[in-house]
Structure formats: C-alpha cells, structure tokens
Amino acid sequence: MLIRSKRIRLLTVLFCLLICWVSRTMANNSRNAMISVLPAENPHPSIEKHSKLFDGLVGAWDCDFSSIGEDGKITRFKGELFFGWILDGRALQDIWISFPRDPSGERNIGTTIRFYDTKAGIWRVVFIAPSYGGITTLTGGAEGDRIVLNGNDSDGSLLRWSFNEIKQDSFVWRGEISRDQGKTWFLAEEHHMTRRTRNVRSWLPKRR
C-alpha cells in the first residue's frame, strides 16, 4: 500500500511538471507566433523582375562600420547585418546591429523595411531606430551598378544612401548628407560588409 501511494505521488508530480512544461511551451509559442509567420523564403512572383535588385543581399553580413564627423574624425566599430524577405515575399527587411565597445553595454539596433511600389515604379524604404527615436523614409532604385535611395533628414537636409561595389560576398554602404539642397555632399558614414560564411554570431546580447 505504501509503495502504491509513493507511485501515485510520483506520477502526480510528473504530471504537474508536464502540464507546466506544456503551458510554458504554448506561452512561448504564442509570444513568437508573429515572428514565425513573418519570414518568406523567396520574393513574391508579382515583383520577381524587380526583386533581383536586393535579392542578392539576402543573408548575414559581418560589418566594419565607419562614422565620419564634420571635423573629419572617423569612428570605427564592428557589427552585423541581416537581410531577408518578409510578408509573403512582398517586402524585404534588414536588421542593422552595432556591437558595444564595453562588453557590459547594449548594442545599437535598427531595422529597415523596403518594398517595391508597382504603381510608382520605385522602391520605398522606412528605417527606424527606436533607441534614439529615429525614423527615415527614402525612395529610389538602381543607378548604374549601384542602388541609390534618397530622402530627408529630420532637419530637412537631403540624404543619399547607397549600396556600392556590390559583389557576391561584399559591398560598401555609404550615407551622405547635403545641407545645400544637393549642391555639395558630405560623406557621413561608410560601411564595409563581408558575407558571413559560417552560421556563427559575432556577438550575443545579454539575457534579460
């Protein structure tokens, strides 16, 4: 009788643990439900002809970022960049991450969503960086062997973001600013990207 009672208690404990595990798994799946349906393997057939402009950038990239001050001072830092199709392949999202110099610090992260506007015949781009309240909208497309996007900064200055020297395993991204309506341009950012060949993260954020 005593042995049977111990077995019942053990089975009860195991059953409770199983219920907790199932509940936690379901909760986690629920929280990730949106993320699980966001990605797309390929661009949508309706934009197949235009998707080639960005499709070659899909994947993971290791980044050497350079920020250039108006006094000419250059600040360099490392990071990573991820490109992928989303929303049934009708849009492309990228995630820009710069690593903290202090191991205990936080990374900087921003994301871009771009889609081809079939009516206007242009790519529309929205970049957001929540950590500093940044939002930038641009439009553009191919210019020769480059991808060029034009928009406005928050102070009204003209912006020109471009993908240059595009190869299968590398490209150079440049961010330029004009404060005189396009008469002269200042190179504010230049980032060199190298395609990641191994599925290894260069830096992982702290768990919270």
Question: What does this protein look like?
Answer:
- By secondary structure, this protein is α+β, with helices and mostly antiparallel strands.
- It has three helices and eleven strands.
- Strands 2-3-4-5-6-7-8-9-10-11 form a ten-stranded antiparallel beta barrel.
- The longest helix is centred in the first third of the chain and has 30 residues, at 2-31.
The termini sit apart by 48 Å
Rounded to an integer in angstroms, the radius of gyration calculated over CA atoms is 23 Å
Total of DSSP H or I helical runs spanning 4+ residues:
3
N-to-C order of helices and strands:
HHEHEEEEEEEEEE
Helix content: 10-25%
Strand content: over 45%
What shape does the CA trace take?
Answer: globular
Q: Could you say which structural class the secondary elements and strand pairing correspond to?
A: alpha+beta
Number of strands: 11
Question: pLDDT below 50 for ≥5 consecutive residues: which ranges?
Answer: 15-19
- Spatial order of strands in the largest sheet: 2-3-4-5-6-7-8-9-10-11
- Major sheet: 10 strands, antiparallel, barrel
Short description:
With 208 residues, the chain is of the alpha+beta class.
List keywords for this structure.
single chain, 208 residues, 11 strands
Please outline the helices and strands.
Blueprint: H1 2-31, H2 33-37, E1 39-40, H3 48-55, E2 59-68, E3 74-86, E4 91-98, E5 108-117, E6 122-129, E7 134-143, E8 146-152, E9 158-164, E10 170-178, E11 186-195
Antiparallel strand pairs: 1-3, 2-3, 2-11, 3-4, 4-5, 5-6, 6-7, 7-8, 8-9, 9-10, 10-11
